[in-house]
Amino acid sequence: MHVVQYHKHMESPHKPKPLSTSLFYLFLLLSTNLLTLFISTNFYSSSSLCASDTAATAISASTTTAHTVTHPNLDDSRNTLDLPPEFLAFTSAQKLPFGFNTNMDSDHIIPPVGSPCTLFPNELRRYMTYKVNGSCPDDELLAQKLLLKGCEPLPRRRCRPAAPPEYVEPYPLPTSFWTTPSDKSVVWTAYTCKNYQCLIDRMKTQKGFDDCKDCFDLLGREKVRWTTVGTNLDFPIDEVLAVKKPGTIRIGLDIGGGVGTFAIRMKERNVTIITTSMNLNGPFNNFIAARGVIPMYISISQRLPFFDNTLDIVHSMHVMSNWIPTTMLHFMFFDIYRVLRPGGLFWLDHFFCVGDQLEDVYAPLINSIGFKRVKWVVGPKLDRGAELREMYISALLEKPLKNSW
């Protein structure tokens, strides 16, 4: 382009150029184009495996979408090469060894990672900085903070997490159901308490709020959950199971299930329940696993990792309430509807809100999903004082056997 412009600038309207001069400029133009082609072929080849190509692939295939997200902490002009090398290595499009795959409709695979991860470059850099094939940093709090901010799923890492130095194996079934695990089964550095006895006692000794503060005391309130009736808001577990034909409630999910007691109750009745839980100042996932049921470390924001129309029952207690943004809650309820099989049960256990919200917001929202009401009980929530006008909803809802629209 520049050669052509220079050529035109030098042309005179009054004097014709000799043929030799025209041939010279033509030769110069061809040489320049050939040189450009040579440079681009050697330095930007798609078959190159150098680090710059890996980064470029990651930018084009993995991080471009994330950079379109509006966020006050995100500098839109920031170059993606500022991201940690291990993050780019993981998120880069990987060529399939056997070429095109009809299931994927591609010859590459892009490992999934939460797009908001790139919104928090400082935390992400700390999380993805480690010695490959070595030990992972002791950074459970950092990882959970990233996950709760929306960096979900977290990127995989090529390092080994810390394990308890003198690990003790769990108790055998069924002893493990109602026995406190060994302190040596947990890495305690992320928590205020450094042993299970501290967690058991914290309801009596610790001021301030902690999630599920009394859950670790298996001889306390956990021992009677879903078996005794305190108010009409408490549904006994056997009463819920009796709604369906015997043996047809077999598999399900407990969302925000604390220390897994709901799953234990169901396991005692030959029902397999997966429990989602976070480690909010306590080793909830370790505790659930030690009891002999399955923990799943995901936040309430993540799409449920189950296929449509597959689960017999979904249960949630307390975690679903008016602290969740209404639109997000609407998506959550529809996701629960999605994974339940036709005829499956959604047990909404002690959902709470402020009085006016019940009829104005939450009852219409729940009704909009399409569930059939099997049982619906409303009552006051008085543990923080009647002046707050808080209300509970306990509901047993059924997904229709046939679409009703």
UniProtKB/TrEMBL annotation:
Location within or outside the cell: Endomembrane system; Membrane
Pfam families linked to this entry: Methyltransf_29 (PF03141)
Main location per the UniProt record: membrane
Residues spanning the membrane: 23-44
A GO term, aspect molecular function: methyltransferase activity
Record GO biological process: methylation
Family label: Belongs to the methyltransferase superfamily.
Matching PANTHER family: METHYLTRANSFERASE TYPE 11 DOMAIN-CONTAINING PROTEIN (PTHR44067:SF7), S-ADENOSYL-L-METHIONINE-DEPENDENT METHYLTRANSFERASE SUPERFAMILY PROTEIN-RELATED (PTHR44067)
Listed name of the protein: S-adenosyl-L-methionine-dependent methyltransferase
Classification lineage: Eukaryota, Viridiplantae, Streptophyta, Embryophyta, Tracheophyta
